[in-house]
Amino acid sequence: MPEADFFNKLKQHFEMQLPFVAYRKPILIGNLGTVTAFLQQDDYLNYTEAFSESGFVFAPFDTSGKAILFPENASEKHIFEQVVSDEAAVTGKSQKGQISEEKKSAHIELVRKAVTALQAGEMDKVVLSRREEVGLQQQGPLKLFNELLKTYSTAFVYCWFHPKVGCWLGATPETLMKLEHNQFKTMALAGTQKFQGSMEVEWGEKEKQEQQFVTDSILENLKASGIEALEISEPYTAKAGNLLHLRTDIYGTLASTAVPRNGSARLANIISALHPTPAVGGLPKEKARKFILSEEHYDREFYTGFLGELNLQKNMQRSLTRRNVENLAYRTVKKETDLYVNLRCMKIEAGKAVLFIGGGITKDSVPEDEWEETVNKAETMKKVLLK
Ligand SMILES: C=C(O[C@H]1C=CC=C(C(=O)O)[C@@H]1O)C(=O)O
Questions:
Q1: Which residues form the pocket of ligand 1, taking CB atoms under 6 Å from any ligand atom?
Q2: Tell me, what's the ipTM?
Q3: Where is the Chorismate-utilising enzyme C-terminal domain (predicted)?
Q4: Cβ neighbours of residue 172 under 8 Å, at least 6 residues apart?
């Protein structure tokens, strides 16, 4: 479908106040991306707990909240092929906007409190965040979505709307998990510095340790949830917009003997083993969760939750071995789940965008530097908001 028709479909759906999501996965090779939309045909609010359905899932940070589903069989699906510029070639001036001193000291105070708890050995790591409001001029969500698509080719870019919930947009660099048949993939992403023109950078001990916590915890939890033959890459520097992160890729296979035997129950098991990873929660998981819920003093809602494709059928053309040359039309149908962590995101409200940004705190964190990190992270969204 041509781009203009695609956006018209979204516009009409939005005007009718019907739920939709439009998204594009990270473009890692070449300059072509597929932008997909699920347009739910009614305004029913569907949830999933079992993760056994097919569709698009949108889950909050707090695991006691429910994950929303746009069921595939209740949605119209459209795609358009987007040609993108290399992310590095997309320029634009640094956009910080006005930042309130009050917000700054509140965040620094919050980080200080966490550092005291971390130094006392109560936790190893906790991810703390804040909100920031930016006034909107004329930009509607679809225009902002289009800007995000053009600006961030290597991110998972989305615009999600439900009339009973709200409208969210984001450009996240982090995969929660991908499961293609029995092939599993995830990443440990943590440690941040500003991109200053080079990928050849040094990482401090604080960042290395904070990232190692994430890798170790993911590996431990995966083993317990039936993923075997685990392999990991060396930690390496990955670019996300104006930032660099430390990243380790993790691969594995879903054990055929994993219990429970039912495929979707296994998926629910893996999701609950992973979410929230210490890249957005902390360690130990429960202590960090409690600290976040009691100290942040706001509801993260869907920020640091996860979103993406759930059990979508992919048609796979079999390779032409001698056996299936006899039957050229032979195809296998495989299910794929592809979920992302909801970072670098914002919620659209009347006349404003509410940005959500955070960072990992360890006993060695310097509160002023952690503040600065959230300012840098907020630029991912401000680049399209303050154009
Ligand atoms: C919590 C966020 O980022 C996480 C992902 C990558 C790097 C992070 C860090 O260096 O602190 C965070 O763990 C956020 O962007 O709001």
A1: 127, 129, 174, 189-192, 245, 279-280, 343-344, 357-360, 377
A2: 0.98
A3: 105-325, 332-377
A4: 155, 156, 340, 341, 342, 343, 344, 345
